Amino acid sequence: MIRKGLVTTAATFSLMGLVVMMSPGTATAYGPAKAVGIANCHIASGSGTLTPGLTPTGTKGKVKISFTVSLTVPCPNASVTSPPGVTILGGTVTGAGVYAPPVSGNASACPNFDGPDILRHLAVSVVWKTSGPAIAKTRVAFRGGTGTVGGSPTDTITLDTPPVPVVVKTGSFAAPSTTHTVQLDTTIPGPGCGPGPYTTFSITGGVVTV
Question: How far apart are CA 127 and CA 156, in angstroms?
Fold first, then answer.
């Protein structure tokens, strides 16, 4: 009887220990909470790359773009309604995508990049810096449309609807789905560029609203 009682007690403790060990794992699997509200933050600085680099006439094929920017600290225009106690202090934005050429011409030609190039797809992720609880990152995927690049003497890239016809937003600040603007003030030369190739650029300002 004593032996049976010891076995039963050991099994109970083992089961209890299993439950205690599983709880943190379950919490980690779900990750940080998805914030609700609106974040409107200015860009402090950043940099990016274009492959191939832009030239006056360009080369055949598409252009790949990637960039990383830091948001200003703090971010006073953010309003987080859930989870409670969250203040947006800034964050890091990364993006990567592809511009396709128009019907005729090359995507990496400066007059086409700042003009009729077609945004095939571009995904932007925002990892938020917060005080209070951590929150999930925000991901915005833009696809389709022309005229996302413009400006003189340097280009501003504006990802919004319009002109981008398809946008999908997930993670923190997923609703309202109609709020999603990423505007990058760059040092990429406008349509009348020099010989190039322009493969790298700086981001001097802009805004991210989700």
Answer: 23
Secondary element (H or E) of residue 26: helix 2-30
Integer angstrom CA distances of residue 83 from 2, 16, 37, 127, 146: 51, 30, 10, 16, 37
pTM here?
0.83
Tell me how far apart the terminal alpha carbons of the chain are, to the nearest angstrom: 65
Report the alpha-carbon angle 70-74-77, nearest 5: 100
Cα four-point dihedral sign 121, 183, 90, 36: negative
Q: What is the pLDDT of residue 29?
A: 57
Domain boundaries, the chain: 1-30, 32-209
Cα separation, 200 vs 144, in Å, equals: 24
Q: Cα(48)–Cα(198) distance, rounded to whole angstroms?
A: 11
Mean pLDDT in consecutive groups of 10 residues from the start of the chain, 210 residues:
44 39 39 93 97 96 97 89 93 98 92 95 97 95 93 95 91 94 96 94 97
If 0-12 CB within 10 Å is exposed, 13-18 middle and 19+ buried, where does residue 192 land? exposed
**Does residue 105 contact residue 112 with C-beta atoms inside 8 Å?**
yes
Query: Residue 31: left if φ>0, alpha if ψ -120 to 50, beta else—which one?
Result: left
